[in-house]
Predict the structure.
Amino acid sequence: MPEREVVLITGTRKGIGRYLAEHFVRKGALVEGCSRQLPDWNLENYEHHIVDVTSEDQVRSMIAAIKKRHGIAPRSGGKPGCVLRQIHCFRC
């Protein structure tokens, strides 16, 4: 099975963030989204994280969970925290 792109989008509870989550899922991506509250919608291939992006600890915890779920590991010789697969970040 080919690897699927993992996309991280912030502000996915509503508005443009929600639209982007729906868009990338339709394109076949695995979407990881976050906001400070739970969304009032569900989407297959979407995982939501309750995170305040102004909190470095919360963001680091979310990234660690995403890496663990998708088997993403730091690149050898790369900077700490670099990921093997692409993760696109959108701030809405």
User: Anything to note?
Assistant: Helices lie at 15-26, 56-70. The two ends are 32 Å apart (CA to CA).
